[in-house]
Specification:
The structure is a single chain. The chain has helices spanning about 5-10, 25-30, 50-55, 70-75, 85-90, 105-115, 125-140, 155-165, 190-195, 200-205, 210-215, 220-235, 250-255, 300-310, 335-345, 385-395, 430-445; strands at about 15-20, 40-45, 65, 80, 95-100, 120, 145-150, 170-180, 270-275, 290-295, 320-325, 355-360, 370-375, 380-385, 400-405. With about 450 residues, the chain is of the alpha/beta class. It has three domains: about 5-150 and about 330-345, Rossmann fold; about 155-180 and about 220-325, no CATH class; about 355-445, Type Iii Antifreeze Protein Isoform Hplc 12. Strands 3-4-2-1-5-6-7 form a seven-stranded parallel sheet, sandwiched between helices. A four-stranded mixed sheet has the order 9-8-10-11. Strand 3, helix 4 (about 70-75) and strand 4 (about 80) form a beta-alpha-beta unit.
C-alpha cells in the first residue's frame, strides 16, 4: 500500500535499465510510461530490431529512442543497447531488471549489477533457481537489493505467504496452478501444441516458441518456480518433488493438507503445484491454471469459529482454509517490484537460504555423446528436489543442462548428475553455483 503515492511524490523518477525485450519486458514497457516516478532509460537486447519492435508494440513513439541514457533522461526517452553490460554500467541508472530467461546470462548480469552498486530485479527465475541464494547474499553485502519480480508467480506466492504469517497463521502449503497430466514430463517441442490445443501453424502465427511453452507443460517451469518459492519463504518440497494433484479452488484446503488428515501433502509447510485437469483429462470448472494460492491453519477453536462466521471455504474439519489469486499479470505488474525496491528498499520476495533445487532428469534413455538441450527441450525436464538431496546426489541443475555433452548414458527419468556431463568450470554461473553448494554443505556439517 501507498506505493503509488510515494512514487508520485518523488522529485525525480526511478531510472530503470531493462535487459530483455521478450514478452515479459514488452508488457512492462506497455505500463511503465503510465506510472508516475518510473522511467525506463535504457533497454538492452542482443537484437536491436527486436528491442525497437518491443517499444513499438508497447506504444512508445519512434522519437522516444535516444542515442544515450543521458539523452534519454533529458527527453524522457529510452536508449537502446545490444550489450547488456554497457547498460548495467551506464551512468544514471538506479535499477536493473533482467528479463532474459537465460540462467547463465542472468547470473552474469546480476553479479555485474551488484558490483556496479545497482539494485537488481530478477524476472529471470531460471537464474534465481540456479544461484539465487548466493546472488541475494552478494547483494545484501554490497548494500543493494536483489528481488524476485512481482507479476511472476514466485513473488505473488511469497506475498501470500507473508500475508498469512503476518496475520498469525501457520502456512500449510503454497504454490500455483498449471495444466499437468501424467506423462507430460516426456512431452517435447515436437508435440507440445497438440497438448495445448493449437496447431503448429497457429502457434507460429502467434510467434510462440515451442521449447519455451513446453517448459510450462513438462513440469520444468513448475520445478524452477517452486525452487524460487522455497528458497524465499522457508517452505520446503516433498522428498519426491511435485505431486501435481488435481485440485480446484474450492478443494484447496481439503487436498492441500497432510496425508494423515486425508490430504496429499507429505508435510506441513510444503510447496506444491496443483493441476487444472482432472484425472479424466478434463479441465476442472474452478481450476487455478493461471493463479497462486496459500493454505493456512486456524490456530485455535475461536479462530476456527471465525472462519465459519465469515464464510471462509474450509476443509472438512474446518481447521484449514485457503486464499488464492486466479491470475498473474507478469510484466503488467512488474512496476510493483520497481516501486518497492526503489522507494522502500524492500524486495518483493528474496531467497535467504538454499532449500530446494530444480534438477535435470532424462526424458528418454540418453546415450553418451548426446548434447542436452535444457529447459523445455527434447532431452531433459526439471524436477523439484530438496537441496540436501540434490547436493548429496551431485545432481545437475536444470539451469546448467543446456549445450553440455553427456559422458555416460542416463536412463529415462533418471537424474542427470553433474559428473555425467562436461561443464565449463570457469564460467561465472558454474563458479557461483559451486560456491553456493559448498556453503550449503558447510552449514549442514556445522
Amino acid at each position: 500500500m501507498n506505493l503509488h503515492r510515494l512514487l508520485a511524490q518523488r522529485a525525480a523518477p526511478l531510472r530503470i535499465g531493462l535487459i530483455g525485450a521478450g514478452k515479459f519486458g514488452t508488457m512492462f514497457l506497455a505500463q511503465v510510461r503510465r506510472t508516475p516516478g518510473l522511467h525506463v532509460a535504457g533497454l538492452a537486447d542482443l537484437n536491436l530490431n527486436r528491442a525497437g519492435e518491443a517499444l513499438r508494440r508497447a506504444g512508445w513513439p519512434g522519437e522516444a529512442i535516444q542515442p544515450s541514457v543521458d539523452q534519454a533522461l533529458k527527453t524522457k526517452g529510452v536508449a537502446l543497447f545490444d550489450d547488456p553490460f554497457a547498460l548495467i554500467k551506464a551512468p544514471g541508472v538506479d535499477i536493473i531488471i533482467d528479463s532474459t530467461g537465460s540462467p547463465t546470462a542472468g547470473v552474469a548480469h546480476a553479479l555485474a549489477t551488484i558490483e556496479a552498486g545497482r539494485h537488481i530485479i530478477m524476472v529471470n527465475v531460471e537464474a534465481d533457481a540456479l544461484c539465487g541464494p548466493a546472488l541475494a547474499e552478494r547483494a545484501r553485502k554490497a548494500g543493494v537489493v536483489y528481488s524476485l519480480a512481482y507479476g511472476d508467480q514466485p513473488a505473488l506466492i511469497a506475498e501470500q505467504v507473508d500475508w498469512a504469517r503476518a496475520s498469525g497463521f501457520d502456512v500449510i502449503a503454497a504454490g500455483k496452478g498449471t495444466k499437468y497430466l501424467p506423462g507430460y514430463h516426456h512431452v517435447t517441442p515436437a508435440d507440445v501444441w497438440r497438448h495445448y490445443g493449437l496447431t503448429p501453424e497457429q502457434a507460429e502465427r502467434g510467434g510462440m516458441n515451442p521449447q519455451m511453452f513446453n517448459s510450462f507443460l513438462d513440469g520444468t517451469k513448475s520445478a524452477i518456480e517452486m525452487t524460487a518459492v522455497a528458497n524465499a519463504t522457508g517452505l520446503t518440497p516433498a522428498p519426491d518433488g511435485l505431486g501435481f494433484p488435481s485440485c480446484g479452488t474450492r478443494a484447496l484446503a481439503d487436498v492441500l493438507r497432510p496425508r494423515a488428515e486425508g490430504g496429499t501433502l507429505h508435510h506441513k509447510g510444503q510447496v506444491e503445484v496443483i493441476s487444472s485437469m482432472g484425472t479424466d483429462g478434463k479441465e476442472l470448472t474452478d481450476h487455478l491454471r493461471w493463479g497462486v494460492y496459500v493454505v493456512f491453519e486456524a490456530p485455535s477453536d475461536y479462530v476456527q469459529a471465525c472462519f465459519r462466521e465469515y464464510g471462509l471455504v474450509t476443509d472438512s474439519t474446518g481447521r484449514y482454509s485457503a486464499l488464492y489469486k486466479p491470475f498473474h499479470l507478469i510484466g503488467l505488474e512488474l512496476g510493483i517490484s520497481v516501486a518497492s525496491v526503489g522507494v522502500r528498499g524492500e524486495p518483493t520476495g528474496q531467497p535467504d537460504a538454499f532449500r530446494a533445487d530444480a534438477v535435470a532428469c532424462a526424458k528418454r534413455d540418453l546415450k553418451a555423446g548426446e548434447t542436452l538441450d535444457g529447459e523445455g527441450g527434447f532431452t531433459v525436464y526439471g524436477r523439484l528436489m530438496p537441496s540436501s538431496g540434490s547436493v548429496a546426489a551431485g545432481a545437475l541443475p536444470i539451469g546448467l543442462a543446456h549445450g553440455v555433452k553427456l559422458k555416460r548414458p542416463v536412463t529415462r527419468d533418471g537424474v542427470v548428475r553433474a559428473d555425467d556431463v562436461t561443464l565449463d568450470e570457469g564460467s561465472l554461473a558454474v563458479r557461483t553455483r559451486r560456491e553456493m553448494e559448498a556453503k550449503f554443505a558447510a552449514l549442514n556439517a556445522a
